[in-house]
């Protein structure tokens, strides 16, 4: 098992796959359901901002099970829009590339950090505050008709990758 990214799909144990599903997918669904219940109770609507890594759409050969569970977040966002949009509940998915946070850095060597920066077209890591600004923007009334979007914050990595 690759301790950083998960395992190959063919060698993933059912126990490990269930654990990934429980946290990455079921946890997100439970949190979204709780938020929707509250929004429905207050009759004012609201905004759900889901977070998922870009590898959910680009894949990762050593982390296929994790990528698959995170791809479900896009489906969750679509469901929230279709089911609750008429109740003034909006939903978005922010797809994050390499965003520099201590939790990420502490498991990486300097070489891995440099290689991660090179994955983006902009050749740098993203900043946490940029993610917060995008989340605040989609949650604002200024973004109210653009519900259901997947917004990629990755310095152009997905769009500039071969294939």
Annotate the secondary structure layout.
Blueprint (H helix, E strand, L loop, with lengths): L13 H29 L3 E8 L1 H4 L5 H21 L4 E8 L2 E2 L1 H4 L4 H10 L6 E2 H12 L10 E4 L3 H4 L3
Helix pairs in contact: 1-3
Report on the structure:
It is a single chain. Helix 1 (14-42) packs parallel to helix 3. With 163 residues, this protein is an alpha/beta fold. The chain contains 7 helices and 5 strands. The protein is 52% helix and 15% strand. The protein is globular, with a radius of gyration of 17 Å. Strands 1-2-5 form a 3-stranded parallel β-sheet, sandwiched between helices. A two-stranded parallel sheet has the order 3-4. The chain has one domain: 3-Layer(aba) Sandwich (Rossmann fold), CATH 3.40.50.720. Residues 1-5 have low confidence and may be disordered.
What is the number of E strands? 5
Structural category: alpha/beta
Unreliable segments of 5+ consecutive residues: 1-5
Q: CATH topology, which one? A: Rossmann fold
Strand order of the largest sheet: 1-2-5
Query: What's the CATH H-level superfamily name?
Result: NAD(P)-binding Rossmann-like Domain
Secondary structure tally, helices: 7
**Kindly, what is the distance between the CA atoms of the first and last residues, rounded to a whole number of angstroms?**
27 Å
Strand content: 5-15%
User: What share of the residues lie within helices?
Assistant: 40-55%
Summarize the helix and strand pattern as letters: HEHHEEHHEHEH
- Large-scale geometry: globular
The CATH architecture: 3-Layer(aba) Sandwich
**What is the CA-atom radius of gyration, in angstroms?**
17 Å
Count of the separate structural domains: 1
**What is the overall pLDDT average?**
85
Largest sheet features: 3 strands, parallel
The top level CATH class name: Alpha Beta
């Amino acid at each position: 098992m690759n301790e950083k990214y998960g395992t190959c799909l063919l060698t993933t144990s059912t126990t490990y796959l269930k654990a990934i599903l429980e946290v990455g997918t079921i946890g997100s669904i439970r949190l979204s359901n709780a938020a929707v219940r509250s929004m429905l109770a207050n009759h004012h609507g609201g905004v759900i901002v889901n977070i998922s890594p870009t590898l959910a759409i680009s894949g990762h050969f050593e982390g296929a099970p994790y990528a698959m569970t995170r791809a479900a977040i896009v489906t969750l966002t679509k469901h929230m829009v279709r089911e609750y949009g008429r109740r003034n509940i909006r939903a978005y998915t922010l797809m994050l590339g390499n965003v520099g946070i201590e939790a990420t850095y502490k498991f990486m060597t300097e070489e891995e950090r440099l290689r991660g920066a090179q994955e983006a077209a902009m050749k740098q890591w993203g900043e946490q505050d940029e993610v917060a600004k995008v989340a605040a923007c989609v949650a604002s009334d200024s973004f109210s008709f653009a519900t259901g979007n997947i917004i990629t914050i990755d310095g152009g990595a997905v769009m500039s990758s071969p294939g």
